[in-house]
Amino acid sequence: MYYASTSWRRSADDYVYLSLCLTAAGRRPAAIKINLMKSFFTLFPIFLALGLAAQPVLVKDIYPGDDAGPRNFTPFGDMLIFRAESPDAGVEPWITDGTEAGTFMLGDLNPDPEVANGNSNPSDFTIYNGLVYFKADDGVLGDEFFVTDGTVAGTQFFLDIQEGDGNGNPFDIVLYNGLMYFTANDGEVSSELWSSDGTAAGTSLVIDIQEGSGPGNPNFKTVFNGELFFTANDGLVGSELWKSDGTAAGTVLVKDIRDGGNSLPSQFTAVGDLLFFRAKDGVNGTELWATDGTTEGTYLVKDINPGSGSGSPGNLFSFGGLLFFEADNGADGDELWVSDGTEAGTMMVLDINPGSDNSDPGQFTNILGILALFTADDGAAGEELWELSVEEEGNPASVVVGLLDDINPGPEGSDPEDLVFSGSAIYFSATTADFGQELYEYAVDMDSAVRISDINTAGDADIDDIVRVGNRLFFEATDGTSGDELWTLEIPIAELTIARDGADLVSGDTLDFGQVFISEAGAAELQLSNAGNGVLVLYDGDLTGGLPLPFTIQELEEELELLGSGESLSLTAGFLPTEPGTFVQNLRILSSDPNAPVFELVLRGEAVVPAAVLEVSLDEMPLESAFSYDFGTVLLGGQATEEFAISNLGNIPLNIAGVTLSDEVQFSITELESPLAAGSQDTFLLAFAPASIGLQQATLAIATDALEGGEFTFNLSGTGEMESGTQELNLLEALVFPNPAMEALQVRLERGLDGAQARVFDGQGRLVWAAEVPAQAQLLQVAVGNLPAGAYVLDIRNAAYRGTYPFVKQ
């Protein structure tokens, strides 16, 4: 067949941030086999027939004995809104939670059997601001706007756009710029562009494109590049390409593609910065066109069927940065085509059904952004499931396709329809000779599709309109007895949960690494778990080289990691800064959790230089180096002290390299703590104990290993004084001899003293000798032999008496 290897890519335009989980520089995911189900989906070796866990059940026989014909399925929270026919009320709006008791009609909006057979025929269900707006006919006012909150009481008439019994006929409703835009007819400006904020007062005509009674008929509304594109007819140039910014002035013709006729643009599909569509210019037939939103940028991509013939592109589908579609080049039939928006890059991917026969590719379904499934007929196996991948994002030459599964072997295909991917399995209807049309499941841990129902044991179940709501599928089917009714199937659903240190995270949370030193690593352990009952697929994104540094994320062991129910794995996110600053980056973790396919975490880290920061303060006031401090006047023999604080304002311990004091006799400093822890503070004392009369000065330097300002210096000063200045002491009489003295000075006191001290000062007032006077001693001997010759003063004092005695040393 056409199997080949491929790899899943996403461009930086699609995902601005890294998805889980590339870390090695330059790494790109290794090839994944194109045969998705038989390789990727069997990486997880579990033998589980998920389809055997539950069987489809009839929700409710809404129309006993006939067809309820449920249609227009619209998920609304965990409920499903739809239209169905019941024998008493006709076709009306219904809602269900999947149980018979929880399935009921929201209202018999048209109770008049004479008008439209009593049918309100609701349609165009649109969810807006938590409510569902829709079109219906109440039998009195025509087709107009209704609204419901999902309850009978909350289902009511909203707005009569065309007053009276005329049809306002609101349709083609899209959400744009916070409003609903739709086409409607108020009876004056037929079928034109309207907008609504969900209130009657906030509903108004935007513009009358075809002025007068003619219909502008804006249709196929598509939001692209911040504007609303659609097909409309202004009555002058025919049905052509228009756009609007939501205002009358901003609603303009983009291009008159077919001069003098209708180009009829349709099937608008955005791929990157281009909006593709089909149109006919009157020369080349219906072909593929594209626009960037400007007149000059609107062009024929390629005349697929050359000349006046039509390539008739259809089933336009965006995948892998490319447009895929079916088209007929006039020779090969309807086949699979691809386009990058250029003529050269628009080509047939493969003539799946060789020759002029049609393969009719359709039912395109995106599977996790890795592969796309579609249906096609190769002429040998009939219409079956096929797959395609894009090996290089945006490169049409890198597309690979292959037959996925021949569900009904032989030339009669199984005709798969209504493909729905739940994140854990693909569900669809298919037909075989033995069982007719039934429901099938292709689970991510299986290697082929499995039939999971035999709803109609006697024939086709006529399954149609499969839709997923939470952990249920809803669809129309018949068991051959109850007619076409609403059926449901409970399905396994994966659920991704992420925790850090046992605490659950929610998408949008910040994963903060805090402060991390440059060239060191911060780490956060993430626990990824599957809290659901389906199989969870975790897979890579595509930014080459992985998460931008300084952030990293651990690689998955497999490019596609599958977790069964209750299973988990651990991944380590890292922060490895090389320069200071605060860094923020988004991490997108992609999974097959259908309710949260993208789990986004904000990574944050503060990179800091490892450094100790020294601060010295006095009375909580920071000081600058070379700070001058004066102890004031201090009596000789006394001492003055001051307490200072030393702090480490940095983020690593502060080491004291050394303390240098120029005068260690009269000035002193207490021991400093080393190392001083980051963010901590210690205190120390500086003291002045004068040994000399007069001004005394010194310098103190504290050296540290702080990154900046590592040394702090003090300029210290103080004045020594002999006199108390506060108390007049009694005169102490004494006899001092010999004077001059050579070796010893004899002193005879008139009285004995307690607590007295004897000191000798030189002629400059410097203290040269000191001793305690024995209690009550009256005879003292002062050794002066070691003193240089000169004049001295002997001072003897206690708290009450003082005597000073000059003498000379020979």
Automatic annotation (TrEMBL):
Q: Which UniProt keywords apply?
A: Cell projection, Cilium, Cytoplasm, Membrane, Transmembrane, Transmembrane helix
Domain HYDIN/VesB/CFA65-like Ig-like as annotated: residue spans? 629-718
Pfam families found in the cross-reference section: HYDIN_VesB_CFA65-like_Ig
- Do the record's keywords include Transferase? no
Annotated TM spans: 36-54
Localization per record: Cell projection, Cilium; Cytoplasm
Cited NCBIfam families:
choice_anch_D, ELWxxDGT_rpt
Q: What is this protein called?
A: Choice-of-anchor D domain-containing protein
Give the organism the record lists: Phaeodactylibacter luteus
